[in-house]
């Protein structure tokens, strides 16, 4: 009589194991597909689609403002989340600040220069030491690989005067 419960237990385990193995296989397959997709996106510079209605803006500065150096620049976005560079999560990205109108190729990752500042840790503000005079500022929101979204999520370009 003890053999029947053991046999039933073994049958139950035998039928449960294949589905668990199949689930793990499906998980591994999904991870491999995502890794291949990420690799292709990175190597081929494929742009990440922008979420509908996403926008970038300057919440505390406006075009024509006169400011003193150092200048605190606050970054704003709506309809999209903020995540560190290298973190691929749908609907997220990080800020890049263009200073004094640099030429940017939006089909490749943005370079890090004196005029293109990266905020890849997910920062939402910075302090800039700008020389007196007129300066342009523009935010461009980048994906996990520092590339602009398609279409680009960017603020209006503003001109400030540093006294």
TrEMBL record:
This is DUF4399 domain-containing protein. Residues 1-21 form the signal peptide. Pfam families: DUF4399. Keywords: Signal. InterPro entries: DUF4399. The keyword Signal applies. Residues 73-163 form the DUF4399 domain.
């Amino acid at each position: 009589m003890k053999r029947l419960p053991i046999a039933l237990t073994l049958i139950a385990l035998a039928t449960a194991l294949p589905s668990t193995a199949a689930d793990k296989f499906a998980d591994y397959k999904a991870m491999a597909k995502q890794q291949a997709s990420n690799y292709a996106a990175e190597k081929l510079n494929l742009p990440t689609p922008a979420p509908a209605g996403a926008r970038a803006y300057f919440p505390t500065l406006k075009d024509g403002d006169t400011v003193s150096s150092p200048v605190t620049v606050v970054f704003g976005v709506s309809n999209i989340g903020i995540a560190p560079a290298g973190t691929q999560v749908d609907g997220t990205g990080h800020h890049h600040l263009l200073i004094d109108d640099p030429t940017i190729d939006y089909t490749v990752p943005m370079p890090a220069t004196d005029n293109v500042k990266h905020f890849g840790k997910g920062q939402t503000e910075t302090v800039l030491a700008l020389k007196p005079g007129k300066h342009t500022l523009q935010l461009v929101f980048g994906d996990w690989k520092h590339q602009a979204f398609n279409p680009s999520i960017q603020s209006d370009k503003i001109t400030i005067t540093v006294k």
